[in-house]
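B., you asked whether I could sanity-check this one before it goes into the benchmark set. Here's the sequence:
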Amino acid sequence: MTDTATRDTSAAAGPPPKRSYAKMAADESREDYSLRYAPHSFRRWSPTMVASTALGGIAYLADFAIGASIVFTYGFTSGLASILCAATIIFVTGIPIARACAKYGLDMDLVTRGAGFGYFGSTLTSLIYASFTFIFFALEGSIMAQAMHQAVGLPVEIGYLLTTLIVIPIVFRGMGALAKVQAWTQPIWLIGMVLPFVVLAFEAPDAWGAFASFGGTEGAGSGFSWISFGLGTGVALSLIAQIGEQADYLRFMPAKTDRNRRRWNLAVLAAGPGWVIIGAAKQLGGALLAFVSLEAVGKTHALEPIAPQIEALKPWLGSFALPAAALFVIVSQIKINVTNAYSGSLSWSNFFSRITHKHPGRVWYIFLNLGIALTLMEMNMFAALNKLLGFYSNVGIAWIVAVAADLVINKKMGWSPPYIEFKRAYLYAVNPAGFGSMVIASVVSILAFFGLFGEYAEAFSTFIAAGLALVLCPLIAWATKGKYYLARPNPVNGPHVHVPDVTATHACGVCETAYELPDIADCPVQAGPICSLCCSLDAGCGDVCRTSPSSEPVLMPMPTVRTG
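And here's what the prediction gave me:
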């Protein structure tokens, strides 16, 4: 929400002036509560609709390119083990995060704040997440541009620009438009995804047997190698931050009730960590298609998903194989890149709101994210795929594992509050439990990645990152006795209070807009309730609430909900 008021008040100057928001940012049909708790009144989609929309975003073909790159570099046996190991880690860490986001109506950034990182500590993770979205937007956009070049001869440089511009009108309109696009394009995507493998089953039934003995194109050999396994797993683990994009949809999951409990649980499992089951299958499938087409198109083009698609479809479609494959690739990439652009706008919004105390609206950050992605495409990042993703995964896995460790271990042991507190008014700037463990794990694993600790440590740098984050997050929380989770008690979250209707709204004393109880804080400067966003944007209060909390609660109590 765009802040149009000047805020230079101090805690001693009395209540702060009123804040107004620009029309664009005040329209929640576009803004989608980008920096807020998603209220129950906005969660009007069914569990099935939310899950199908979230899963629509995993239509991307980067899985094809990543899987093919891993198998071509490290051979089939090591490549298969890498893909399956990475998928297992991603699935296990994604379960508690998906459940927390769906229960609390919070995106990944807001969950990270309360899950061991603190208010400013999670600013770094916003950058990590933003980099994930523009790196993969660039990767997916490159694949789409390759398809356009194959289909109509469009220069890839122009294709990069076109793939960037085409998603803007959809992402601009928010969750409602994204849900429609994912639903309308799903039949085309399903047919395009399955058809090449059906053709191979009839036309090249021996392909899988030959593929299983493939030793790669770099001399790795068909046998198992620990070094190859470690390096390949590191590349595949670059996708671990995808749970953040799933969470951007899961926060709109309706409240779980006795009536919808089973559908709710299945939807959260499928749309949260479940994406990686399909993802791993796509990596193996993409590697198979690339292997079958290798002799016909050469290594470079075999790693570009469009060429293997064409070769697989030729026996049945003949001259129509090219347009059919191009249509499938373009639809797939639109489906994922609207998600990348949308999630990127959310992460940039979270980052800049805390740094600048201003928020011009989610939609403006779409252009920042796409501008960076376009630059990466023009720099041909596709050529450095393995190195780029291998490096990124060291940071991404340290972040995700630290959050998962807090949700699963720290909360169960009582070192972390049993609920997710995301509001600035109740958080320390930095919590060493999550933030400290992520920084230490990232630094050590990056040093290992660049070979400082030897060949095996280099290959297993992502395992080092995951192991350190998993151990250090609970260890630091225990050593500090959970001191840095809450800067002051939340008067509406006590363990013995009466549980009210959390859908009841309370008017913010600054913007004078009514929000549901979980989005409201108790503000001593305002001497009344303040919404989470107005609290975030206040640059002059001096965080007095953390040292001089109001003596009388002004809000109704809020229920404690565990993430387990």
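One thing to flag: The chain has a mean pLDDT of 86. Otherwise nothing jumped out at me.
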